[in-house]
Specification:
Blueprint lengths: L4 H16 L3 E2 H8 L3 H13 L3 E6 L2 E6 L5 H4 L5 H4 L9
Antiparallel strand pairs: 1-3, 2-3
């Protein structure tokens, strides 16, 4: 099961935007990242759930700050052992 490469690019784009604009609200981050409301909010939600960003409430407004950067190349799913090595081949039984 693969992850959409475009989705990883969007997550990295939003992560970099949060790093560049700490304590910005969701609207500001979406505008700076040039994303629609739906796409931007979903990316923020995924980054928040995965622990890459944190949300703080300041003056009744949610703001976002980076905890650790998301990079598509570092976070790409890796093949499992069974997908890269022959299993149950050869040997005695």
């Amino acid at each position: 099961m693969g992850v959409n490469p475009r989705a990883r690019e969007i997550l990295e784009q939003v992560s970099r935007t949060v790093e560049t604009h700490p304590d910005a609200d969701a609207r500001t981050l979406r505008v700076r990242a040039h994303l629609s409301r739906q796409t931007g909010d979903k990316a923020l939600e995924l980054l928040l759930r995965a622990g890459f960003i944190e949300c703080r409430r300041v003056n009744a407004q949610d703001t976002y700050r980076s905890v650790r950067p998301y990079r598509a190349s570092a976070e790409a799913p890796h093949a499992s052992f069974g997908e890269t090595h022959a299993a149950r081949q050869g040997g005695g039984g």
